[in-house]
Amino acid sequence: MDALVTGGAGFIGSHIVDALVARGDAVRVLDDLSTGRAENVNPGAELIDGSIVDASVVAGAVAGVEVVFHLGALGAVARSVADPRASNAANVDGTLNVLTEARDAGVRRVVFASSSSVYGGADIVPTPESAPLRPRSPYAITKLTGDWYTRVFAELYDLETVALRYFNVFGPRQCPDATYAAVIPLFAAALIAGEAPVVHGDGTQSRDFTYVADVVAANLAAASAPADRASGHAFNIAPGEGTTLLELLDGLAARIGVIPNPVFVDPRPGDVHRSCADASAARDVLDWAPTVTIPDGLAAYVDWIRS
Description:
By secondary structure, the protein is α/β, with parallel strands linked by helices. The chain has two domains: 2-167 and 211-239 and 278-286, 3-Layer(aba) Sandwich (Rossmann fold); 183-206 and 241-275 and 294-306, UDP-galactose 4-epimerase, domain 1 (Alpha-Beta Complex). It contains eleven helices and 13 strands. Strands 3-2-1-4-5-6-11 form a seven-stranded parallel sheet, sandwiched between helices. A two-stranded parallel sheet has the order 7-10. Strand 1 (2-6), helix 1 and strand 2 form a beta-alpha-beta unit. Helix 4 runs parallel beside helix 5. The chain is globular. The chain starts with a strand and ends with a helix.
């Protein structure tokens, strides 16, 4: 299969590239390296240094491709609160460019990286895809817009689309020194350095943490799932297990061999208190289920960050 991975120099995208190259696919990466890193890109893939906001660049990248894995985006709720226009340009205009150019190039399917943030503070937990969509940040709005664009493109054009709603992905290559680093890298780096981890809020907020290898498997499954059941639909990708930040901190501390002494600060604007997926649709339609437990995933991450 000929594949394009937008954002393929980033955390999740680079792992997808590795999996595609390992199985013998011809892989092209489109990444402007604003948040991704060139060293993450598998040497067996072609790297195009360019932005999804530039339609002409996207047109060149999708030429001759069968499947596009669209992960190119500006992530982080806090970043979108600080600069909503930048998030909208990358995540909405960029996604529309990818879909339009993929349609025009005769691409078979686009697999879109969506987000659990589209649900906001869901009343139904675990949350199914049918739950009301109440985004609470500019980032969440951009991901919901991408969700809807993928559905409409599948309905209107000869282009298959699948949206995957990720829930708090973690694993190797997720760096603690990024401007908007995620909670697991920040906690792990602080504990290893003997510093006090910073907890936003009281630590009882929960997340459905998902190891990156399971997200990669979901993307590969989404690329080949039957079009009559998968195309035009969105699927939750997560284990369906809520873990509080304090439980997470204790798990990391036990693996590292320290006692955590967190500092509590104000909650972040736009954050939700509880997030947990009902991923039964992905199990049914995509034939996907997570295989990596949270303790095993944390152990793998700690080993990576120490190395």
